[in-house]
Amino acid sequence: MEKIIKKLEGMRVLFFLGAFLFIFLGLGIYFGCQAEILAKNYYYQSIQVDVQVNPDSTFDVKEKQTYNLEGDFGFFYREIELKNLDHISDVQVYDSQENRLNENEYKVSYEGNRLRIQWDFPRRTFDKELKSWTVKYKVHGGLGFFDKWDELYWNAIFEDRIVEVKRAEVLVRLPKEFEKEEIELKLFIGPLGSKIESNNYEILDNKTIRFWGYNIEPYHYLTTVVTWPKGAVVKPFLYQNQIINWIVLLIALAMPGFVFIKMFMVWRKKGKDPKIEKTIMAEYSPPENLPPAIFGVLIDQNVDIKDIIATVIDLAVRGYLRIREQESSFAFLKTKDYTFEKLKDGNGLAPFEQKIMEAIFEKGDMVSSDNLKKEFYKKISEIKSLIHEEVKTTGYFSGNIEEIRKKYSKKSCIILFSTLILLIIWLIAAFLLPIGVIRYFAQILILELGLILSAMIILIFAHYMPALTSKGLEAKWKLLGFKEYLQTAERFRLGAETLETFSKYLPYAQVLGVEKKWANRFADFAYQEQTWYVPSVSVSGGKGGAPASFNSFSSSLSSFSSSITSTFGGGPGGAGSGFGGGGGAGGGGGGGGGGAG
After folding, report:
1. Which element (helix H / strand E) includes 34?
2. What pLDDT is stored for residue 45 in this prediction?
3. How many CB atoms are located within 10 Å of the residue 444 CB?
């Protein structure tokens, strides 16, 4: 025990020694880094900006930045905000002797909504030395055009910097001379949104204005506003992309409207069903005694899971298969499963009925609904296609419903594919092209919205394009009469074969959506044994016998329909103006950031 205590004490000493060394080294590294940071210091001794406004509405900017450097430096950079302008071109960088740098001596890139210019030089240590660099560039789409004046609203001294500017001077040169009374000026110095005006400006001559400021704090702007009478500059045709924006917006809005009108006209000509003019009268049998799935399509022009389930019940009623309900319980929980028993082959059945028989009894002549859940859903698509083919043979529609819809859906898919191509083009442009040029590609996104809406309109109309023929209209009229009988006809018309009639017409009631009303008409009748469906509930509550009443039988069938719907269809789990009260620091174009490193 003493040995263990000694070992623990030794480990404790080692732990505290290690912790002490770790803290000591960490503090050493921290203070070392702090010393390095403190040893590296700079600020802007001066920034001189010269802006020449051109008659073509561009303006050339020349920025001479003089740094006071102390410490180790190897590069400088300038970031220009691109909001409220089209783009920037003709970027050039000059050294202290006004020698222009080669293009491989500086880099121009785009970071978000900014243009970044960075120029490198052999890294060395400065001892409170002044170093000057000059950046030149041309601004496109940076002027403002108003009813009575044109305007330069420019953040000449950028805000995104961590050091102050000791002295700033901005010269603005207009494209022609004006009377001094025709030139209006404003100057804002301060943080973003500051409304405090400065009077540090003067008109040097009839076309040159000077602004200045001292000790401009970090993250503060120097924003100049100059207005002059209209006529000195020509507003560009594509001023800040406004014309392109309006054209594309007009196309994007007009396109869905045009497509809607076009599709509506096509629908009226080819897809609109004629109205049933005759009064609906009760019919006591389905027209032409066709399978229930056909009438399910006749009603809503779709093949639904309920149409397939109705077919299964119809096949059972006709003696091709038997459905057995099996109930099991565990504690207070009861679950039901269903077994399908094949009674005879499907020879002579319609192709879609044969396919349903094959899908159910693919693994044998006795199969549970639990096993079907893993496989049957895979056959749904083929069964639907075969039902559509069968409907086509009736002559109820002008063609195959599925093919008619595909014809129009293909057009929609072509449009959606075009939007994908345009999106890819836009993404490529976003990665490869200057942001000023990307602005011209931005309208692609607006256009895509119009294309997507147009495609959706075509898809919606495609659903309603299949049209009834005169034969189909007559059949639908009779079918609606049969529906009327199923839900409202007098009970005495059923005659002696009450439950046989119920079973025979139950699949039709299902596709017509009136199975509950059809079943309610038999509520007071005594149950007669049905060979096609064997419930699990007997008179005494045991298994294997007949239900005590028709209500029990009906309830059992309802549970079957709900359960089998999941089985068959589910599958396995799985900027304004600087005047007029709207101006302020940082509100114009330009600005951005800069620094040294």
Report:
1. helix 2-39
2. 94
3. 18
- Write down the architecture of domain 41-229 according to CATH: Sandwich (2.60)
The C-alpha atoms of residue 378 and residue 384 are separated, in whole angstroms, by 11
Name the segment(s) of the chain with CATH classification 2.60.40.
Answer: 41-229
What's the pLDDT at 541? 46
Q: Look up the pTM and report it.
A: 0.56
Comparing CA positions, the residue from 244, 167, 255, 254 lying closest to residue 212 is 167
Q: Which residue has the tokens 């319980």?
A: 329
Q: What is the pLDDT of residue 538?
A: 46
Give CA–CA dist 537/552, Å, rounded: 8
User: How far is the C-alpha of 62 from the C-alpha of 54, rounded, in Å?
Assistant: 14
HEC string for 280-339: CCCCCCCHHHCCHHHHHHHHHCCCCHHHHHHHHHHHHHCCCEEEEEEEEEECCEEEEEEE
Q: Is the dihedral of CA 307, 313, 317, 319 positive or negative?
A: positive
Would you say 26 and 14 are in contact if contact means Cβ atoms under 8 Å apart? no
Which residue, 575, 505, 580, is CA-closest to 86? 575
Pair of tokens at residue 108: 């121009």
For 34, counting Cβ atoms within 10 Å of its Cβ (0-12 exposed, 13-18 middle, 19+ buried), the class is exposed
Segments in the chain below pLDDT 50: 1, 4-5, 8, 30-38, 492, 496, 538-544, 573-574
Query: What are the angstrom distances between the C-alpha of 329 and each of 123, 553, 567?
Result: 83, 20, 20
The tokens describing 464, both together, are 């309603």
DSSP state of 178: -
CB burial of residue 36 (10 Å; 0-12, 13-18, 19+): exposed
pLDDT at 273: 79
Q: What is the DSSP letter of 395?
A: T
Specify burial of residue 138 (Cβ count, 10 A radius: 0-12, 13-18, 19+): middle
Q: How far apart are CA 212 and CA 459, in angstroms?
A: 63
CA–CA gap between residue 584 and residue 225 (Å, rounded): 9
